[in-house]
């Protein structure tokens, strides 16, 4: 991505059961599955239709990390909580990857192309 974000070094990979999702009511979560090639990549999402006066397209981002599960490892981004609604997932600062709908109390999943 063309955005630069300062972050401390990523901690060790997450293990099964170590990620807590804050979902319920009108809050949901988004998991973006990637390949290992995207390890460390910052992926941004933004709500569609946000009021540009109050919040000019606020973006939330998280880094791709390995997640160790029983018998396998995956790479993904976990973004939680997100207010329910439609979101753009950004491939680069000005190129959208996809649009997804996050529903309250649910986990929405997307496969990075």
Key structural traits:
113 residues, mainly beta, Immunoglobulin-like, four-stranded antiparallel sheet, 9 strands, globular, disordered N terminus
Structure in words:
The chain has one domain (17-111): Immunoglobulin-like, CATH 2.60.40. It is mostly beta strands and 113 residues long. The strands form 2 sheets. The protein has a 5-stranded mixed sheet, with no helix packed on it. A 4-stranded antiparallel sheet has the order 4-3-7-8, with no helix packed on it. The two termini are 15 Å apart. 0% of the residues lie in helices and 51% in strands.
Please provide a brief summary of the model.
This protein has 113 residues and is mostly beta strands. It is 0% helix and 51% strand. It is globular and about 40 Å long.
Please identify the oligomeric state. single chain
Ranges where pLDDT stays below 50 over 5 or more residues in a row are 1-6
Q: Numbering strands along the chain, what is their spatial order in the largest sheet?
A: 1-5-6-2-9
CATH fold category name: Immunoglobulin-like
Q: What is the strand content?
A: over 45%
Number of domains: 1
Secondary structure layout plus pairing:
Layout: E1 14-15, E2 27-34, E3 42-47, E4 60-63, E5 65-69, E6 72-83, E7 85-92, E8 95-102, E9 107-111
Parallel strand pairs: 1-5, 2-9
Antiparallel strand pairs: 2-6, 3-4, 3-7, 5-6, 7-8
């Amino acid at each position: 991505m063309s955005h630069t974000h300062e972050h401390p070094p990523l901690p060790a990979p997450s293990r099964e059961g170590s990620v807590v999702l804050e979902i319920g009511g009108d809050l949901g979560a988004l998991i973006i599955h990637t390949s290992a090639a995207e390890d460390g990549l910052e992926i941004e999402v933004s709500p569609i239709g946000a009021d540009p006066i109050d919040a000019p397209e606020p973006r939330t981002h998280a880094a791709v990390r390995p997640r160790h599960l029983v018998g396998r490892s995956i790479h993904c981004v976990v973004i939680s909580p997100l207010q329910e609604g439609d979101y753009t997932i950004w491939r680069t600062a000005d190129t959208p990857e996809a649009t997804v709908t996050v529903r309250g109390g649910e986990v929405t999943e997307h496969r990075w192309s």
